[in-house]
Amino acid sequence: AAFGCDKTLDLKRNELCGGCSGSGAKSGTKPSTCPTCGGAGMVRQGQGFFVVQTQCPNCGGKGSVIADPCGSCHGNGFDNKKVTIKIKVPAGIEDGTRLRVGGEGEPSREGGPRGDLYVYVRVKPDPQFERHGNDVVNKLAVTYTQVALGSELEVPTLSGKAKLKVPAGTQPGEVLRMRGQGIDDGYGRRGDQLVVIDLHVPRKINSKHKELLKQLAGEEGEEILQQDEKGFFDRIKELFE
């Protein structure tokens, strides 16, 4: 969806019957003008001021009748067949978009061009990225030392791995912006990637780490950092307001 792709779609649709070329009449014959409507496909019923025009009951509005129907399609003029169609999905397409594929719809019995095929696109959810307009959002797990001291980390993007500078003192839940790493808007402009800092606390630590943390706790003393009560989605919402 972000960069566009080519897809194949298998479906069943009507094709002109090969035995009668869509006429519905047996090979060597052809439909004749309907005697009821005179080829108009409609008949008028009523008297005086009240006249109603309705579909011809004899030909069903076709204007012609088939005396000797085709043995392959039984006068229908079409065969229902399975076809494979290639579809070009444009870059930046959103979930629920309707694509029009010209000339891939139903055929015309009267010999005109085919109709169009309409394809509704569903974009599968991604386990790592979440889309907001042309921007994408993802979480990045970091350690206490990486945010306290600052670091340059390799993070996943839609285009592959990229470097992200995490400033010293970055807080959990803070959002860092990576310019131009989002989704193309169709005019050559790409959105951004919003990286939400997620502090990773190890479940188990060895004795050396434990001793270092105790020393750090002693250095910190009674200092308590005020926890930001805003949640992840509140922060993301603010970015688009």
Describe the 3D structure:
The mean pLDDT is 86. Helix content is 12%, strand content 35%. The chain has 241 residues and is mainly beta. The longest helix is centred in the last third of the chain and has 14 residues, at 207-220. The chain is rod-shaped, with a radius of gyration of 34 Å.
What labels would you give this structure?
241 residues, mainly beta, 4-stranded mixed beta sheet, two-stranded antiparallel ribbon, 3 helices, rod-shaped
Please write out the topology.
Blueprint lengths: L4 E12 L15 E2 L8 E6 L2 E6 L8 E2 L12 E12 L8 E4 L15 E4 L9 E3 L2 E8 L1 H6 L1 E7 L2 E7 L8 E4 L14 E7 L7 H14 L11 H8 L2
Parallel strand pairs: 10-14
Antiparallel strand pairs: 1-6, 2-5, 3-4, 7-8, 9-10, 11-12, 13-14
Largest sheet: 4 strands, mixed
Proportion of strand residues: 25-35%
Supply the number of helical segments.
3
Structural class: mainly beta
Radius of gyration: 34 Å
Q: CA-to-CA gap between the ends?
A: 25 Å
**Count of extended strands:** 14
> Order of strands across the biggest sheet?
9-10-14-13
Low-pLDDT residue intervals, each spanning 5 or more residues: none
Order of helices and strands: EEEEEEEEEEHEEEEHH
